[in-house]
Amino acid sequence: MEKDDLQIKDILEAIGEEDILAEESQTIAQEEPPSSLTPTQREIANYPILALAYIGDGVYELYVRRYLLTAGERKPGRLHKKAISYVSAKSQSELAAQVEPNLTEDEAWVMRRGRNAHSAHQPPNARVIDYRRATGLEALIGYLYLTEQNKRLNEVFAILFAKEEQKEGE
């Protein structure tokens, strides 16, 4: 383990985040998919969770870009700047917390699996907890997209964009 990794681990232990995530990881790893899933949903829900997050990242980016364009923004520089405010791990983490109370049992299960996934990648400008919550949100979006739950996907994005607009108006 490198020196920076040890320092990060020490900091996380000091604030208790690592213990919370470790406990949740053990619980989720033992959880079976909800029984309400259809066979196709069950198959997709059991894909490697980081694969769901990978596709969810692309879908999220596309929805954000479409939203910004339909909101009237046309200049590429401004589009890019505004898009970054939506796709950062910190922003996605905040949005994940906002959408979580509105999730079904199945959706919450997928999001928890994503949040507790262990990735070798860690962005330098994000807290571990924010990165994991963002991964959970992306996994949920990937799951909804791959299971072709387009109406629900649009509902989730409506919640996300409403919360972000509220934040901008403050």
Structure explained in plain terms:
With 170 residues, the chain is mostly helical. It has one domain: Ribonuclease iii, N-terminal Endonuclease Domain, Chain A (Orthogonal Bundle). It is 76% helix and 0% strand. Helix 4 crosses helix 8 and helix 7 packs across helix 8. The longest helix has 22 residues. It is globular. It starts with a helix and ends with a helix. 25% of the residues are buried. The N terminus is likely disordered.
Q: What gyration radius follows from the Cα positions, in whole Å?
A: 17 Å
Order of helices and strands: HHHHHHHHH
Which regions contain 5 or more consecutive residues with pLDDT less than 50? Answer: 1-12, 17-21, 23-29
Fourth CATH level, the homologous superfamily: Ribonuclease III domain
Total number of beta strands? 0
Strand content: under 5%
Question: What's the CATH class, please?
Answer: Mainly Alpha
Helical amount: over 70%
**Gap between N and C termini, in Å?**
43 Å
The averaged pLDDT comes out at 82
Alpha-beta content class: mainly alpha
Main sheet characteristics: none
CATH fold name = Ribonuclease iii, N-terminal Endonuclease Domain, Chain A
The CATH architecture can be given as: Orthogonal Bundle
Specify the overall morphology: globular
Please give the domain count: 1
Number of helices: 9
